[in-house]
Amino acid sequence: MSSEKRGMSRGLTSYGDDGFSLFLRKAFIKAMGYTDDALGRPIIGIVNTFSGYNACHRNVPDLVEAVKRGAMLQGALPIEFPTISLHESFAHPTSMYLRNLMAIDTEEMIRAQPMDAVVLIGGCDKTVPAQLMGAASANVPAIQLVTGAMLTGSHRGERVGACTDCRRFWGRYRAEEIDDQEIAEVNDQLVPTAGTCSVMGTASTMALVTEALGMMLPGGACPPAVSAARQRHAEETGAAAVRIAADRLTPDKIMTPKAFENALRVLLAIGGSTNGLVHLTAMAGRMGIEVDLEAVDRLGADTPVLVDLKPSGSYYMEDLHKAGGLVMILRELKHLLNLDCLTVSGRTLGEEIEAAPKPWPQNVVRTAKDPIYAEGGIAVLRGNLCPGGAIIKQSAANPKLMQHEGRAVVFADAADLAARIDSDDLDVTADDILVLQNIGPKGHPGMPEAGYLPIPRKLARQGVKDIVRISDGRMSGTAAGTIVLHVTPESADGGPLALVRTGDRIRLDVAGRRLDMLVDEAEIGRRRASLPPRPLRPEDDRGYRKLLMETVTQADKGVDFDFLVPPVKAKTPLAKG
Ligand code: FES
User: Ligand 1 within 6 A of 125 CB?
Assistant: First the structure.
């Protein structure tokens, strides 16, 4: 029998006398109105990430109530507590800058306060990985609940949703195809309800891969934020939290190399956000598991993209929910999955697939024989421009540009891009390759989603819809185009991307998995020798930003802080692909 303390006795505040510590703790919490009976029950912590700045989490108060109901019906005492909340559009310079801070907050508050299990309520892009990174490190029984996707809106009879359509309409506005009045009208329709972005952006991606990983109850990824199904799932999550507390079902029993392989397989099959790869790498890293990028690429060879959601396809998350949700995808991939992986339900992934309702005719999830795209959504590139790797979301790229050689047009950083991209004097053609430097984890701290460089206005006016773009930054999962991201090492950390100059030839060869600058080695060496040291910015030298600048890892390691990651003890994926 475990000697681990339970309920209110867990993690006592240090006064040198445990009896007094518990006496004092109970005295204070009784001011909340609890009886001794309530305080003697197992405790289910509930992470409340409601924020007035976060519309993706607007339904969190309702979800908290439903989780409490589920926990109390099973005889436990639920207690909610706040942590940081991150919304994509309300986090300067970028939400990724704060993901690790949220992970630290989550980990430490789980550890500091007494709880036998914790329900993590997140949703907006960085929140779910942050919560799972923190929970993995705290290793207290944990279960993820997402807020769910928003419903779609309607603009002049056309169905619209955040945020693929945000970018599409903004592109049309920049190309002067629509006027001020219409762009204002569409602004009212893009986010019509509470909930996360309605396409296969990072939030939808993380919801689906978390369910595949086993850290969410089956069927939890897809119900819309405003649906009764979302509320019922929350109640079930509260009840399940009591069971995992009793069974001591800690994250290390679920977040295994085989489970991460399942999650990576699903990431590829859903045409998921490229951010999903960085987040899964960071989450696995917290368990001492290294994500092997070459093996991920091999996994893609026999993993077709099956889900017809924007930006790679046509539909929205509410359609995937009506089509049956994740299990429809899992069924098609069944022969490729590790079915013996345990989930927070207490059953295996294989048992959950067997127990799910029978499929019905639908158009959102294709069969493996009739995929959206024959290979996995994400390809991993290597070459003299990215010795540590780079990625491209090939399912959302232009097939005509996947093998392309062109002249580099280089922007030194995000400010340089903003200053020149719309200039009529910009020397650029549709055959060129746009290169943006210094937007990596350290360069523009936090690795913003600026990798989706806009089409230069002079080309947009000519009707150009896509052009090869390369950077050390990230891209929103809601964006599409022939866009190479996560170039590693980043330019601000001595990567060769910093050595590219306007006029250089660059070759992108997605089929051959190569990205190279066609500059001879001697010239590259000369440029490296004359590269000035990166100027020290005063703001890099204090507070959280100093911590980030000194300890953040590169994209291939998950952009976590190095001191939060234990030594590697295993790799994933293990399948040969
Ligand atoms: Fe929150 Fe897109 S802004 S999920």
Answer: yes
